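On to our target:
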Amino acid sequence: MMRFFRCLPLLAIGLAMAVPAFGQPQAAPVPAIATSAHDRLLPLEGGQNFRDLGGYRTADGRVVKWDRIYRSGAMSRLTEKDFAWLAAHDLKTVVDFRDTRERTAEPVNWPATAKPTVLSRDYAMEHGMFMNALLKPDQTGEEVSKVMATLYRDIPNLFADQYRTLFEQLLATDGAVAFNCSAGKDRTGVAAAILLSVLGVDRETVIQDYLLSNAHFRPQAMKADDPNMAMFRKLPPEAVKALMGVDRHYIEAAFATMEAYPGGMKGYYREKLGLDDVKIASLRAKYLTRAGA
């Protein structure tokens, strides 16, 4: 199952040229604080689904701080202006969930004057089983959605080590933290859902933040000589949408995995992420503020 999921972000990024007219499913409005001074999508020229996680209310009435936690897709197209903007907003640490080949193919050329600490892990994606499962010409949107939900059930466990690293950095970093994968919607989407849940944001708001990738993820065009081009062109529109987008059933499948741990979500936090009550309280003290403060 690990090899199934690992190639997902790469394929999703490459579908735009094959299906230029299908569009993206639209996300519902998110119940969050948003002002002209704090836009959820960062004003970056080369940003990919690069968003601020601030402004969300928690169960105890506090609010996630703006300009402290960012979620993103690949940062390889950031411009000098973008790097300067991030440096001005005190970006100190980036946790990159991409695999070795993704990072090699699309490196991030941070300038020396604005380079954060970047943490990543070496692992390899494999394509064969995923291609067989999802890229059959007669695949329906419903079938693709079911496969995606199955894959999402494995994400909390498959990427637990990377997520643990993220939380370690959130606790240790004196400055803003960003985390990313290629599309900023699957590995990153689950990470953001876990993080907002740890901070005490309600489930529906967490899901609505996840669904924003339908509005903000911008796939890159596939090269004409890509060997998978012909196969992608044969996919029906509804299958492409299920593959390229996000759906509440996907993230609910990930939550179901975590809730199955002894103790529910807290059991997952403790066993897989190393987060006990003391660390969770520290995270909330660090990244939450009083509403209106």
